From TrEMBL:
Gene3D superfamilies: NAD(P)-binding Rossmann-like Domain (3.40.50.720). Its EC number is 1.1.1.268. Keywords: Oxidoreductase. SUPFAM superfamilies: NAD(P)-binding Rossmann-fold domains. Belongs to the short-chain dehydrogenases/reductases (SDR) family. Pfam families: adh_short_C2 (PF13561). This is 2-(R)-hydroxypropyl-CoM dehydrogenase. One of its GO terms (molecular function) is 2-(R)-hydroxypropyl-CoM dehydrogenase activity. The lineage of its organism: Bacteria, Pseudomonadati, Pseudomonadota, Alphaproteobacteria, Sphingomonadales. The keyword Transmembrane helix does not apply. It is an enzyme of class 1 (oxidoreductase). Residues 6-184 form the Ketoreductase domain. The keyword Translocase does not apply. It comes from Sphingomonas jeddahensis.
Length: 262
């Protein structure tokens, strides 16, 4: 029961990594507040967790301030903030509409600032934790991920800045950098022939991660077990970023030994 009597607000809690995190924290005693753009999704997960559901667009600063205020009103304070809501985008610079760029930056980056700005006054001095869901896409470039790459890199360095600024107030701030995780966000990969096996092939573990595996990392970062961890960008990617991208020589050698091409 790592989160007994802890109040945890989770954005994007209606699906995928956020939903798994809400479930795990609730199982371990947290009073969860599930925020999502999709009202039914937030409601369903909050009901499962015995928590509070709030519907909001995290890109809307006033809406963010309102859901943080509502959480503080309900519980008197806030211990854990998980900034997890996010969207992707696809398109190289000349083809990307500025409105798409702006929306991705608004949801994936600006919203993190809005929520931290609103929440920190309710967290100060409580041995609290902020966990931001960044991405390995914030550590390097991807083909056609433009705004997503920029936003997630921003989240990683903003997390470091938060960690430095608030360390002496008892607030830790860390981010999770997932690799490919099987959620509705990445389900589209199944619809493009060859993409999913090709993607898995770039991951040393040979598979996508699960939302539950990410929830475990978020929970660790939010828990007292991580009491000396702040400013970290914790990678959980099945080894993807540990690999330089150079060819798997063993595979080519094995194929050559059989007179085939890898
Ligand atoms: N799935 C992956 O492979 C992967 C990899 C790296 C990082 N991430 C990050 O993990 C986080 C969660 O993604 P997921 O894979 O669980 O996706 P998901 O689509 O399953 O869940 C995201 C949730 O965020 C909500 N949301 C989207 N825009 C919102 C908005 N404007 N306001 C409020 N809620 C909003 C959605 O309704 C959804 O419930 C995102 O920040 C994503 O960028 C995911």
């Amino acid at each position: 029961m790592r989160f007994e009597n802890r109040v945890a607000l989770i954005t994007g809690g209606g699906s995928g990594i956020g939903a798994a995190t809400a479930r795990l924290m609730a199982r371990e005693g947290a009073k969860v507040v599930v925020v999502d753009l999709v009202s039914d999704a937030a409601q369903a997960i909050a009901e499962e967790c015995g928590g509070l559901a709030l519907t909001a667009d995290v890109a809307d600063r006033a809406a963010v301030e309102a859901f943080v205020a509502r959480t503080a009103e309900e519980h008197g304070h806030l211990d854990i903030l998980v900034n997890n809501a996010g969207i992707g985008c696809f398109g190289r610079t000349p083809d990307l509409e500025p409105e798409t760029w702006e929306r991705v930056i608004a949801i994936d980056l600006n919203a993190v600032f809005y929520a931290c700005r609103a929440a920190i006054p309710h967290m100060t001095g409580r041995n609290s934790a902020i966990v931001n869901t960044a991405s390995i896409s914030g550590l390097g470039g991807d083909y056609g991920f433009t705004a997503y790459n920029a936003a997630k890199a921003g989240v990683i360095n903003y997390t470091r800045s938060l960690a430095v600024d608030h360390a002496r107030e008892g607030i830790r701030a860390n981010c999770l950098c997932p690799g490919l995780i099987a959620t509705p966000l990445t389900a589209g990969a199944k619809t493009i022939p060859g993409l999913e096996p090709g993607w898995h092939d770039t991951i040393p573990m040979g598979r996508a991660g699960t939302p539950e595996e990410m929830a475990e990392v978020i929970a660790f970062l939010a828990s007292d077990a991580a009491s000396y961890v702040t400013g970290a960008a914790f990678v959980a990617d099945g080894g993807q970023t540990a690999w330089t991208g150079q060819p798997n020589l063993y595979r080519y050698a094995a194929a050559a030994a059989e007179g085939a091409v890898a």
